[in-house]
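hey
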């Protein structure tokens, strides 16, 4: 038996948690930052994080979740790409006694199928964006084009609802074109080019983008059309990624609403508490939003954010 050494278990070694994370993909700088922060949060807590990137396809997310269930993970984090189609796989996780926490988006499924959802108030973000534009144009006529997020995702649905609530009753404001740019820079540019071609740049007063990546793509299209973003066409967006602060600082964007990339902190707090002693969190853990405009010290905020993994 020479050479066979039985390693005695280290006394008092707490069993690390193993958590599966079904991430949508890396469609935006914000999403990349959320992934970075989630991995950091897991590392700090001694959690073994199993990470799966779905390239924005729901079927890949469902496959990953089933794999986590088969592995017998202690818990599952899901950023659900769209709001529907989750009931069956969430039932399977529940049957396996594996708690699920949703990050940054919600699902149209019975609440008992997930422990909690950590998201911003997506309708409120749309309200803030719309109210900012109402105040900015101060009664003047304004034809608006809208770049929607991923079709069927809760942010695309709720941010549209919130914006329309805010401009309702202000007949000088009208959304004349609205189309998905799938939360990406490339699609934001392509769709903005089509808006400019269809409407004529001189007839577009403002762009409402459901995220900064689409807004940054649109800024490129507006420039290539010989127009000044932020001046000829006002731009209001959401996320407050570093490049949005740069655009605010140089006058190419007018306002953005901050979305924290740290959804994992509150999510893992809730997950650990539940796994430790069955503590039940609220069904919705809401993160704060903050409006940034050109009046803020955007250079300083950019410097603070630029190394956070966007
Ligand atoms: O605004 C965008 C990402 O789900 C709220 O998804 C999140 C959104 C975020 O693609 O940048």
């Amino acid at each position: 038996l020479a050479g066979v050494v039985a390693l005695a278990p280290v006394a008092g070694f707490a069993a690390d948690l193993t958590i599966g994370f079904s991430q949508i993909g890396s469609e935006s700088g914000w999403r990349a930052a959320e992934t970075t922060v989630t991995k950091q949060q897991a590392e700090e807590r001694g959690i073994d994080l199993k990470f799966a990137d779905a390239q924005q396809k729901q079927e890949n997310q469902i496959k990953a979740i089933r794999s986590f269930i088969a592995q017998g993970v202690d818990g599952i984090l899901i950023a659900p790409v769209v709001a529907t189609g989750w009931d069956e796989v969430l039932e399977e996780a529940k049957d396996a006694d594996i708690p699920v926490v949703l990050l940054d988006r919600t699902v149209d499924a019975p609440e008992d199928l997930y422990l909690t959802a950590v998201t911003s108030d997506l309708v409120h973000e749309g309200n803030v964006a719309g109210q900012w534009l109402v105040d900015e144009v101060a009664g003047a006529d304004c034809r608006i084009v809208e770049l929607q997020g991923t079709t069927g995702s809760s942010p695309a649905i709720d941010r549209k609802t919130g914006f329309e609530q805010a401009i309702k009753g202000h007949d000088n404001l009208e959304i004349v074109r609205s189309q998905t740019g799938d939360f990406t820079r490339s699609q934001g540019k392509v769709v903005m080019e089509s808006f400019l071609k269809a409407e004529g740049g001189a007839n577009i007063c403002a762009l409402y983008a459901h995220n900064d990546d689409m807004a940054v793509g649109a800024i490129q299209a507006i420039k290539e059309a010989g127009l000044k973003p932020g001046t000829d066409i006002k731009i209001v967006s959401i996320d407050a990624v570093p490049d949005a602060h740069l655009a605010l600082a140089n006058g190419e964007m007018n306002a953005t609403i901050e979305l924290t990339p740290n959804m994992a902190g509150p999510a893992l707090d809730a997950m650990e508490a539940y796994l430790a002693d069955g503590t039940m969190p609220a069904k919705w853990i809401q993160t704060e939003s903050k409006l940034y405009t050109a009046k803020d010290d955007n250079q300083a905020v950019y410097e603070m954010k630029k190394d956070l993994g966007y």
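The chain has a mean pLDDT of 95. The longest helix spans residues 29-44.
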